[in-house]
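Propose amino acids for all 284 sites.
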């Protein structure tokens, strides 16, 4: 991938997230943080332990559900109309080619960002109704990670007994995401542990889920989002989280104190150019 292509792709993703945030009222920092945690801002990311794909790592059932509910609002009526719910509650598409076309939309940054924002908005309303309080970005992430029903169960149990083993309550999720549910020594993390670790990774996006317009300290977020506890993110250029953090550190370091105050989310041309050059030298 060329330097110009990397720059263009990064700008496209950020613009897509900004438009989704503006349309739905979901905080930009939260949506950006979610994409960083899920895919490292790689629209082609693919999970190795589940059907999750794309910028927001939607699994098949979650994607079909949100597309059924909101696809028509974005000119995707053909997709929404093709999706139905069977007697067991699963979302299905009768034509296999159409199903694959719908699932492939997960790799489109604009569509993925829009569906992630709509999904978060729906979950925000439902969680606030269930908990009787304003939903945080971490609450919304739990709903994305475990599904709405799972998030309700997680939050209710955490409120009554925060020391409960998260893996014990969510064994299937724990099998697919061992780094989230277990410490390096193999001991199980509690509900409170899992929640706080996601809050740390989301950074500024873990707070108020409404659109606040707050900025994000770039190096703080880079370190949080790239510390994935052994989780695998497959990037288009086979770049590791360590590589990505290295170029972010170098890009900021080259600008000194001025760069510390700036955000890589809205880089100056010089900072962006340096960062992309360093990525290219790493094999991008």
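Proposal:
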């Amino acid at each position: 991938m060329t330097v110009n292509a990397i720059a263009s792709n990064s700008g496209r993703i950020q613009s897509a997230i900004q438009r989704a945030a503006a349309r739905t009222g979901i905080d930009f920092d939260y949506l950006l943080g979610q994409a960083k945690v899920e895919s490292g801002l790689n629209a082609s990311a693919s999970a190795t332990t589940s059907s999750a794909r794309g910028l927001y790592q939607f699994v098949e059932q979650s994607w079909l559900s949100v597309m059924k509910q909101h696809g028509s609002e974005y000119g995707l009526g053909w997709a929404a109309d093709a999706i139905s719910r069977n007697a067991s509650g699963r979302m299905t598409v009768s034509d296999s080619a159409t199903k694959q076309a719908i699932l492939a939309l997960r790799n489109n940054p604009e569509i993925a960002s829009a569906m992630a924002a709509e999904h978060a908005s729906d979950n925000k309303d439902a969680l606030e109704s269930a908990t009787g309080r304003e939903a945080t970005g971490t609450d919304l992430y739990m709903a994305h990670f475990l599904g709405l029903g799972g998030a309700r169960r997680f939050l209710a149990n955490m409120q009554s007994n925060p020391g409960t083993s998260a893996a014990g309550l969510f064994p299937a999720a724990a099998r697919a995401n061992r780094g989230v549910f277990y410490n390096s020594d193999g001991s199980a993390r509690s509900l409170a542990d899992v929640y706080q670790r996601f809050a740390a990774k989301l950074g500024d996006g873990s707070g108020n889920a409404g659109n606040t317009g707050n900025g994000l300290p770039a190096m703080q977020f880079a370190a949080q989002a790239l510390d994935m506890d052994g989780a695998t993110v497959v990037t288009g250029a086979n770049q590791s989280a360590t590589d990505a953090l290295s170029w972010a550190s170098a890009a900021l370091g080259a600008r000194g104190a001025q760069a510390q105050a700036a955000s890589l989310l809205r880089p100056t041309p010089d900072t962006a150019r340096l960062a992309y050059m360093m990525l290219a030298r790493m094999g991008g």
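The CA atoms of residues 172 and 245 lie 31 Å apart. Residues 212-284 have pLDDT under 50 and may be disordered.
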